[in-house]
Amino acid sequence: MKIRLPRLDGTLDTVTLAARPLRPEGPAKPFDRVVYAAAHVVVDPFRLADPWDASPAVDWDATLAFRDHLYGLGFRVAEAMDTAQRGMGVDWPVARELIRRSLRHARAVGGEAACGVGTDQLEPGPGVGVADVERAYREQLEVVEGEGGHAILMASRALARCARSADDYLALYGRLLRDARQPVVLHWLGPMFDPQLEGYWGTRDIPAALETVLQLVESHAEKVEGIKVSLLDAQWEIALRRRLPRHVKMFTGDDFNYAELIEGDESGFSHGLLGIFDPIAPVAALALDALARGDRAGYRALLDPTVALSRELFRAPTRHYKAGVVFLAWLNGHQRHFSMAGGLQSARGVAHYARVFELADACGALADPELACERMRRFLSVSCGIEA
Question: Among residues 256, 207, 263, 249, which one has the least CA distance to residue 233?
């Protein structure tokens, strides 16, 4: 199976596909790590008249069917996170409906989901203070807990704008943790994912921010299930992981170094809460099964080839990684179209999508190579005039 793919220098390469999809056979087997796949949303393009300027219309059937796909492979779902375009095409009213539907669906099918709690109903600005941020957090926390769900406390753009010191973070998060009905997962999202989060925890100095986070966790350890770290630099995650209280889990959000971080070292390992597990779920399920059986070599042999794909998906500007995630969902037959909330399919160029296609094939992440190839040819014809 061959296809012509465009390169950034304007040339075309003829590529022969490996066409070897990887997927578990039979029912899902238990992992020995707690692993969440942060899932994307499927929009309804028939009802998107002005995608840049209007709240998105969601195809609920396709969105929930994709969660079934993840549950069936043994993953938990991290719902309404940045992979679902929170604050980047998906607003709070849509996210609220997504949370409610997803939690009810999870209960109905026996899946496990945790949901993002943020402050994206607030527009950061000079008139927004810490008290406003707290009210926004509590409003969203009540939605999640009101449905019996577990909360992931997401980083707040508004808090990054109005907080004056680390003490503001410690005080606000401390009150939220004190009043939470059950332990939560904290989320440290770096500015490479969202530039408006620069200086989170009151400083741009990562070692100083790490000390603030550790102080928060240690002061409220009974209310912290774990913390997700998304800094794309393994050293900081490992440094924090080694100092966490014993029962507090480290969830890697490092889409560049997840294979080694989940495998771990002599002093411990990370669990997973990752956007990359959305497009590579079948391959990752095979790898995690190997790890659970003690086959570390098999785990790395399966998961290491996916890292090149992840690094391309999450390359700078990292915030646009969702485009490649949704593109692969379309190529793999999980949705009928390549449209996104906010029209953000336009955030990457055709050479990027061609490289994503090629790397997905190389690591076994194209579920049906013939379908993917046919859709890729149609995409290239429309997007840049390459005819088969």
Answer: 256
